[in-house]
Design a protein that fits this description.
Number of strands: 7
Largest sheet: 5 strands, parallel
Order of helices and strands: HEHEHEHHEHHHEHHEEHHHHH
Number of domains: 1
CATH architecture: 3-Layer(aba) Sandwich
Shape: globular
Low-confidence stretches: none
Strand order of the largest sheet: 3-2-1-4-5
Structural class: alpha/beta
Helix content: 55-70%
Distance between the termini: 45 Å
CATH class: Alpha Beta
Number of helices: 15
CATH topology: Rossmann fold
Strand content: 5-15%
CATH superfamily: HUPs
Radius of gyration: 18 Å
């Protein structure tokens, strides 16, 4: 764990060369660790903490709680249904979306990056992508863990990481190019990947005496060491497209347009 902490700290220190930086923040453990380390080396006033989501969404509520407890100044872009269509139309023009999942991820990213770059005038943005794949964050991993399928989890974590690196990150970098920003992914550093994969699955996913499955155990230990309260480190995290409320809103939108589901609608609009 010490190696992971040291390397994360080194990455963040080395790459926050600008006076101001941004963090896309959901209130979850991944982005909180990044923001906490950043705040150790530069004033909070130079860190733009940004959350995107509908007002009552999971991510917005978590981000509000996290920012209050850690004294972060939070910038929130509240999504609306009309804005979803605005983002979709612009994303079509960029020609960087290949499937509906990437679209639902790109929508909150679009507004977050736009807010940081154009309104807050920050060009370096830190993101927490990769932590779920490397440290056992997905709920499906815990279901397999309960069934004792440790090797299957290990295999899926590697497949999920490869998919993220090959497909989603490419899309995100296309979005970054559009807005003229530099995206920094501390968890996707080659040494962090090596360190994380060195540990067995049973170090990332554990269970309590009461049978509760704990995901991201190593990151929770790091969060505690950094002084992040357990109430924040243990918050349930949803994927960005769900936590922001984007998928829920898009489902309503495509239904209003007469389509059975997002997949069918996407094929008619993007392919």
């Amino acid at each position: 764990m010490d190696k992971i902490e040291h390397r994360l700290t080194q990455i963040i220190k080395d790459r926050q060369k600008n006076d101001s930086v941004g963090v896309l923040y959901s209130g979850g453990i991944d982005s909180t660790i990044i923001a906490k380390i950043l705040s150790t080396y530069q004033p909070l006033s130079s860190i733009s903490i940004v959350c995107v989501g509908f007002k009552d969404s999971h991510d917005v509520q978590n981000a509000l709680y996290g920012a209050k407890n850690l004294n972060f100044q939070l910038n929130i872009h509240y999504l609306t249904s009309d804005q979803i269509m605005t983002a979709i139309n612009e994303l079509k023009e960029l020609n960087i979306i290949n499937n509906p999942i990437h679209l639902t991820v790109a929508i909150p990213l679009f507004f977050g990056i736009r807010l940081i770059s154009r309104k807050l005038h920050v060009k370096t943005i830190f993101l927490g992508q990769g932590a779920d794949e490397l440290f056992g964050g997905y709920k499906r991993y815990s279901l397999l863990f309960r069934e004792g399928k440790i090797e299957e989890i290990k295999k899926r974590m590697k497949v999920d990481l490869k998919s993220l690196m090959k497909e989603q990150i490419k899309m995100e970098r296309g979005l970054a190019k559009h807005f003229g920003v530099n995206l920094i992914y501390p968890y996707l550093d080659s040494e962090i990947i090596q360190y994380a994969q060195f540990y067995p699955v049973t170090s990332h996913i554990t269970s309590t005496m009461q049978g509760e499955i704990i995901r991201k155990t190593l990151l929770r230990e790091l969060a505690k060491k950094l002084g992040i309260p357990d109430s924040i480190a243990t918050q349930q995290k949803k994927a960005m497209q769900y936590g922001s409320g984007t998928v829920k809103a898009l489902r309503k939108l495509v239904k209003m347009q007469g389509y059975a589901n997002i997949k069918v609608w996407f094929e008619s609009q993007f392919l």
